[in-house]
Design goal:
The protein contains 14 helices and six strands. The protein has helices at 13-25, 39-45, 65-75, 86-112, 117-129, 139-150, 163-181, 194-206, 210-219, 221-229, 242-257, 261-273, 294-311, 315-323; strands at 4-8, 29-33, 53-55, 61-62, 278-283, 286-291. Strands 2-1-3-4 form a four-stranded mixed β-sheet. The chain has a two-stranded antiparallel sheet with strand order 5-6. Strand 3 (53-55) and strand 4 form a beta hairpin. The protein is globular. The termini are far apart.
């Protein structure tokens, strides 16, 4: 049976997320760096103009990295990439969504919202699209790439007004994750999880951008080493227990995710359900306002459903979320009251 085909880009965190998962699973796959040379084939397969695109051996196409990891877990149960423990599995899903929908904003803002990061990233993207070669007349074309991406900052909520909040957020999380990884090979012990693949991919991108790379190298050496390991991760032991992880794992939630991502995700999902174009939410770091993201809203609703299901069988999860200040974001939906006649 033929292997997988993964259309991706070294500049795409979601592409690196899926590639690392394929490598960890030992799946046969072909990495296809998206470029002008394969654009026609990509467009024939793609429903949206974004990478990654994974073509399965059965011919199924997916462009959702979360769904790709879930499908790989079913196709390749070993080595496991999600804990058997319901509490740890649910926490992994929350951190995966944090990476995909919130940390990505910080990565995007650091890359395209400032210099010299924008110029360096624009040239990398241009070289990639040109099949790995720098065009002769590259300066004008590179500037066009940078300007086009900078114009997209408001679409993902990474505009100038939110820059300070996003920078503070990613640095706060990085310091807490660095402390956690000082004592653990992966986030949940000796095996990687969806959280590892998603979070590492965002930080791997930051490590290619001058400004965040310098800060991370100086302040988060264990995180940097973990990112290098996550390029082609190998298990080093079993998943740990919640008791063993909690001393530093809790800080990822009560010190960051419950202060930024979860209130943002709840507000965005509410705005999307009402079909509003924009919304604002007051975070600990101040007011955060942006255009509503419908996909992120649907993603959060799916996350809520999965965490609520886990809560029914894992009392330890309820205790952890309560201690983290995150329980309210996964409370059961209240039924709509029928107006009186």
């Amino acid at each position: 049976m033929a292997g997988y085909r993964l259309f991706g880009a070294e500049t795409s965190p979601y592409s690196l997320k899926v590639r690392a998962a394929l490598r960890f699973k030992g799946a046969e796959f072909e990495w296809i760096s998206r470029s002008a040379a394969n654009e026609a084939e990509f467009r024939e397969l793609a429903k949206t103009p974004t990478v990654p695109l994974l073509l399965s051996p059965e011919g199924k196409v997916s462009q959702d990295s979360t769904q790709m990891l879930a499908a790989l877990e079913q196709a390749f149960p070993e080595p496991a990439a999600q804990p058997d423990d319901a509490t740890l599995a649910a926490l992994s899903l929350i951190l995966e969504d944090y990476a995909d929908e919130w940390l990505n904003k910080a990565m995007f803002q650091q890359r395209w919202g400032q210099l010299p990061d924008r110029d360096a990233a624009a040239l990398r993207a241009l070289v990639q699209l040109n099949g790995g070669k720098r065009p002769r007349a590259y300066k004008a074309a590179s500037k066009q790439v940078g300007d086009r991406m900078a114009a997209r900052l408001p679409l993902v909520g990474a505009e100038h007004e939110n820059a300070a909040t996003l920078e503070t957020s990613y640095r706060r999380f990085a310091l807490r994750l660095n402390a956690h990884l000082q004592n653990h090979l992966f986030i949940f012990g000796g095996h990687p999880s969806a959280a590892d693949f998603a979070l590492a991919a965002q930080f791997q991108q930051m490590l290619t951008d001058p400004t965040p790379a310098a800060w991370l190298a100086d302040r988060a050496p264990f995180l940097v080493a973990w990112c290098e390991h996550m390029i082609d991760p190998q298990a080093g032991g079993p998943y740990a227990t919640l008791e063993a992880l909690k001393p530093t794992l809790l800080a990822l939630f009560d010190g960051e995710a419950a202060r930024t991502f979860l209130p943002w995700a709840k507000a965005n999902a509410a705005s999307a359900s009402r079909q509003k174009k924009r919304f604002s939410v007051t975070l600990d770091d101040g007011l955060f306002e942006q255009a509503t993201q419908s996909y992120a809203g649907r993603s959060f609703q799916k996350l809520q459903d999965r965490v609520r299901a886990a809560l029914k069988e894992a009392p330890a999860l309820a205790e952890f979320l309560a201690e983290a200040g995150a329980a309210e974001f996964f409370a059961e939906r209240q039924p709509q009251k029928t107006p009186a006649a």
